[in-house]
Structures are given as structure tokens and as C-alpha cells.
Amino acid sequence: MLKIKSFTFNPFQENTYVVYDESGKGVLIDPGCSDQFEQQELADFIESEGIKLTHLLNTHCHVDHVLGNAWAKNKYGLDLWIHPNEKSVLKSVEVYAPNYGFVGYRSTEADQFLQEGDKIKVGKETLKVLFVPGHAPGHVVFFHEPSKQGICGDTLFRGSIGRTDLPGGNHNLLLQKIKEVLFKLPHDAVMYPGHGPETTIGYEIMNNPFVGLNARY
């Protein structure tokens, strides 16, 4: 059985996820921990549950989702996995992070690269990599088919979508990919976003004002 634990970190109120199963193996997705207190909160949970992390994954590489990458790589000896289209996005964080007050940001590079259709093992479970660019050029979603749960980063929120006015953003492409990829998932699939509460695909199809059936945009 797949288990998902969320943490809300940094001034952007970013959702960090630990995804694990009963074997004790797990992956860390989008560590946004920006100080030692947030790092300790995350580490305490991992230790208390006896989780052995095997992967460090980024849905995309905007600053609020990568603040804890270097810390996690060092503490747990993990490789960082991103989509190759995110390499320049990750590199740029070291330039603009201080502008947001993250003066202690430690940059790091990716070790492995994700492609659409890849499968990431989480103990006895498997996450499938879905490619959903638009908010960021290499944005991916991690979906667990048996439990119909996904970590969707900043693609789709409850009642909203990811912003597309940042470098590499593409509004029309994001709308297209949400419809072609995410909206083809089961209607009762639960999506855990990069900010805010979880939602379901069915709810967004019916109610999302940007991309749902009654979209006004």
C-alpha cells in the first residue's frame, strides 16, 4: 500500500512529499525545506517511520521546490532526478534565490534524468512518470496507478492551474497537457499539488475555471 505524507515548507507554502510503502522504502519529492527547523521536521518523520529513501525527485525546479535538494542529497546519499528540460531552470535558482531571501541556498546538479513513461520503484510499488510541461518546460507528474494517486507539482491545483508567466512557461501548452494527460486519468484519482489541498481529477474536470468543462478562459 502506498503512503503519502505531506509537509508545507518555506514562505511560498510549498508542499513537500514523502511517498513510501509498508516495506519502508520511500522517495522524497520536491523538498522545499528552507531552514534547519524544516529540515529537522522532515528528518524526524523519516526516522520515526523507519523510511529508507531511495530517490530524490523534482516535479520541476522552481526555487520553492528545490530549496532542500542539496541537504537531502548530502544527508541521505541520494541521486537527484529531474527532467532534462529542467537543467537550466535548476541552474538559474542560484542566481535569483537571494532575491527571495534565500541567502543560504546551496545549489546542486541533477544526477539522473526522467523521461515520460519512466517507472520509479517505491519499495514494492511503482510511480509512473507523466510529462506535463507548461508551468515549467520539464514538469513531470508522478502517478501511482493501483491507488490512483498522483504528485502533480504545480500543474493542477484545486480550482486553479500553475502560473505560466515565469521563464519557460507556456499557458496554452499547460492547458493542452492537462486535458491530454491528467484529464485522461480516472475521475476519482487524487492529485496532491505543490501548493494547497489535494483535489480529484473529476472535480477539476467539472469545476476548474481554467480548464474544466465550464472554463471561462
UniProtKB/TrEMBL annotation:
The UniProt record lists the keyword Mitochondrion: no
Keywords: Hydrolase, Metal-binding, Zinc
UniProt cofactor(s): Zn(2+)
Keyword Amino-acid biosynthesis: no
Entry coiled-coil feature ranges: none
SUPFAM superfamilies for the chain: Metallo-hydrolase/oxidoreductase (SSF56281)
Protein name (record): MBL fold metallo-hydrolase
